[in-house]
Amino acid sequence: MAVLDLYNTLTKRIEEFKPNEDRKVRMYTCGPTVYHFAHIGNLRSYIMEDVLEKYLIYLGYDVTRVMNITDVGHLTSDADTGEDKMLKGAKREHKTVMEIAEFYKKAFFDDCARLNIKIPGIVEPATNCIPGFIHMIEALLDKGYAYEAGGNVYFDTSKLKNYYVLSSQNEEELQVGVRDDVEEDINKKNKTDFVLWFTKSKFDEQELKWESPWGAGYPGWHIECSCISIKHLGEYLDIHCGGVDNIFPHHTNEIAQSEAYLGHKWCNYWFHVQHLNNQSGKMSKSKGGFLTIPLLEEKGYNPLVYRMFCLQSHYRKPLLFSFDVLDNVKTAYEKLLNKIESLGSGGTLMEQEIEEYKEQFNSAMGSDLNTSQALTVLYDVLKSGLNDASKRYLIEDFDKVLSLGLLEGNTSSKEISKELAVLAEKLIEERNQARKNKDFARADAIREELAAKGIEIKDTREGTVWSLAR
Ligand code: AMP
Ligand code: ZN
């Protein structure tokens, strides 16, 4: 089995990924807070987590992946202050919280379908699991890791040897940045303590409340992920994913309460995707004006162009969104699909060469999921002297992980017959040769010949692309 080296936020090193049990992976993903559309930044995280899951499957692992849906308890500040985001969404749209949750959950799954993101095998909304949260909070109280104050239940972070096991934040850093909008909560014994169960908060109209030993209330945000993960994946988790903003406080708090509850180490690998930024910084739902997949579609982009945009850069580097770059990717994507579409199916599989290209693909993906290098291997295959059957075989193989719909054809040129696609590629090739030989008359004649067949060509930095003339 090829080796997967992954950066682990817990050890701050690239390490060989080895699950607890041979060939079985238990994977957990923080799901969306369904009070609004997911923006393309959120979806960057889900695309890269999808690539991770699919690469593990590609390597032969049996992956069980769980994702929660946050439909209660996530306040506008990650640190227990502000309004419940779900309530905010409900007020904005004059609907109930559950109506909002249903609508945006469906919208999220639609986005995933358009981006070829596989929905994790187990998806559990937080509101399904209230008795489980209460049970876990009771156990934390019994073990002395939690306390009641002012009607709420808090986790006592001073009971841990190392609360900051995941993040390198220290007390000073916490006073600025992440928590600068935090109002002092006088119930907390320590500044980093966090709410496990609310019965009282500064907003009274919380719509969803449940009976509990501490009074009618609702869970804090962090408890849901610990509880849902342990419920479905047991006491030992192999890998936990999210965007980098989840490192603190969310994942730090998940580790605190899970390990306090279980009495041993919980999760070995922590995988975090860097942010998608726009000119004004991190793309975020609360700032408004964010981009969504339906919006990109309205502007004429196939969602898979955005997937390719993400795959072209490394998941641990911040990614700046711009339409200029997206346009370049669109051109490259269409050209790639056209190239693939023009492949025949001739020849018998060239097994040795296929193995060599697979090794290159594994070497790219195994190096901390170097997806842009994996795309280069795909281009190398297309340029290679392999026969078309072998090329097709490899493209299909790599696309199990890349999921760019490579063999589904270019939807913008769906109506074009196979013969026409082959002819277009052939004539473009000839035109490139003519231009190389400075035979511009011939190059122009070919452009006209293509136009007469209803094909428009465009010369770009990535080469010449063609599409059906509108
Ligand atoms: P949320 O719906 O806000 O709970 O976030 C869903 C996922 O998106 C989480 O894993 C976040 O860490 C991640 N996320 C939020 N903003 C961004 C961003 N700008 N770029 C990448 N991932 C993000
Ligand atoms: Zn979570």
Task: Write structural notes for this entry.
The chain is of the alpha/beta class and 470 residues long. Helix content is 43%, strand content 16%. The strands form 5 sheets. A 5-stranded parallel β-sheet has the order 5-4-3-10-11, sandwiched between helices. The radius of gyration is 25 Å and the shape is elongated.
List the helices and strands and how they pair.
Elements lengths: L4 E4 L4 E4 L7 E6 L10 H19 L3 E8 L15 H9 L3 H18 L7 E4 L4 H13 L3 E4 L2 E4 L15 H5 L18 E5 L19 E2 L2 H12 L3 E7 L3 H16 L4 E7 L2 E3 L2 E2 L10 H6 L4 H9 L7 E2 L2 H19 L9 H15 L5 H13 L4 H15 L15 H19 L3 H13 L2 E6 L2 E6 L2
Parallel strand pairs: 3-4, 3-10, 4-5, 10-11, 12-14
Antiparallel strand pairs: 1-2, 6-7, 7-8, 8-9, 12-13, 15-16
Helix pairs in contact: 1-9, 2-3, 4-6, 6-7, 9-10, 11-12, 11-13, 12-13, 14-15
The structure holds adenosine monophosphate and zinc ion (ZN).
Attribute tags:
single chain; 470 residues; alpha/beta; four-stranded antiparallel beta sheet; 16 strands; binds zinc ion
